[in-house]
Specification:
Elements lengths: L12 E7 L4 H11 L5 E8 L5 H8 L4 E3 L8 H14 L4 E4 L8 H6 L4 E5 L11 H8 L3 E8 L9 E8 L6 H24 L3 E4 L2 E4 L23
Parallel strand pairs: 1-2, 1-4, 2-3, 4-5
Antiparallel strand pairs: 5-6, 6-7, 8-9
Helix pairs in contact: 1-6
The chain binds glycinamide ribonucleotide.
């Protein structure tokens, strides 16, 4: 299945960005668009949290933004129907979840099949859900990272588009790890959206294939084992 119905199009991809919090990922997308690394336009930013700093960021960049409160709807489906209507009303082609802390229901998935992306601060399928940087530290992993994936009906379970790994260091606090992962989030989320915009993503089963991607060989190691002496390179 090729989710990129427009193929390699010249017109900027129309995005709807859903947020709940500080919006640093939203900012990275705005910056990528403004510096022409990403051929897209943000048609609307929608927050389920009226206090979200992401709304200030949208305002500052002259982007249409609004708040939609779950408590104003009788059910999750009703909330998602309204969300989907607003996004469709803006002609949104790709829905971008940028720290949107809500499960997406079938209503949205049917309205935007394989056209909803999410970013998650772990190397999925490890550590889905919340507080995952702490869970990764507590578990004792040597690498963590972030994942951009298409959204399906599960929790952080859809087909993976890009992942970036970061080392976990012995003296890391949760904040240190969050910060290190966030820097990678800001790098790979605009990239994943640009790949979609260029029509370079194809989904086969669970796998997302990226056309014209470079082959990556070799392995990362953390900590670097030096029992055989220094590893060259
Ligand atoms: C990011 O770390 C993002 O990966 C995470 O929330 C943070 C939002 O930061 N999302 C999730 O955990 C979704 N399951 P931001 O508001 O500064 O972009």
């Amino acid at each position: 299945m090729n989710p990129n119905f427009q193929g390699k199009h010249k017109l900027p991809l129309r995005l709807g960005v859903l947020v709940s919090g500080s919006g640093t990922n939203l900012q990275s997308i705005i910056d990528a668009i403004e510096s022409k690394r990403l051929n897209a336009v943000i048609k609307t930013v929608i927050s389920d949290n009226p206090q979200a700093f992401a709304l200030e960021r949208a305002k500052k960049h002259g982007i249409q933004h609004e708040v939609i409160l779950k408590k104003d709807f009788p059910s999750r489906d009703a909330f998602d129907s309204s969300l989907s209507e607003r996004l469709s009303g803006h002609g949104v082609e790709l829905v971008v979840l940028a720290g949107f802390m809500r499960i997406i229901s079938k209503v949205m998935l049917e309205a935007f099949p394989m056209r909803i992306m999410n970013i998650h601060p772990s190397l999925l399928p490890s550590f889905p859900g919340l507080d995952v940087q702490k869970k990764a530290l507590d578990f004792g992993v040597k690498f963590s990272g972030c994942t951009v994936h298409f959204v399906d009906e599960g929790l952080d379970s859809g087909p993976i588009i890009i992942q970036a790994a970061v080392p976990v260091n012995d003296n890391d606090t949760v904040e240190d790890l969050k910060k290190r992962i966030l820097a990678e989030e800001h790098r790979i989320y605009p990239q994943a959206i640009e790949l979609f915009a260029e029509g370079r993503l194809t989904i086969k089963g669970r796998r997302v294939f990226v056309s014209r991607s470079e082959d990556v060989a070799g392995a990362l190691e953390n900590p670097r084992a030096s029992i055989f002496g220094d590893i060259p390179g």
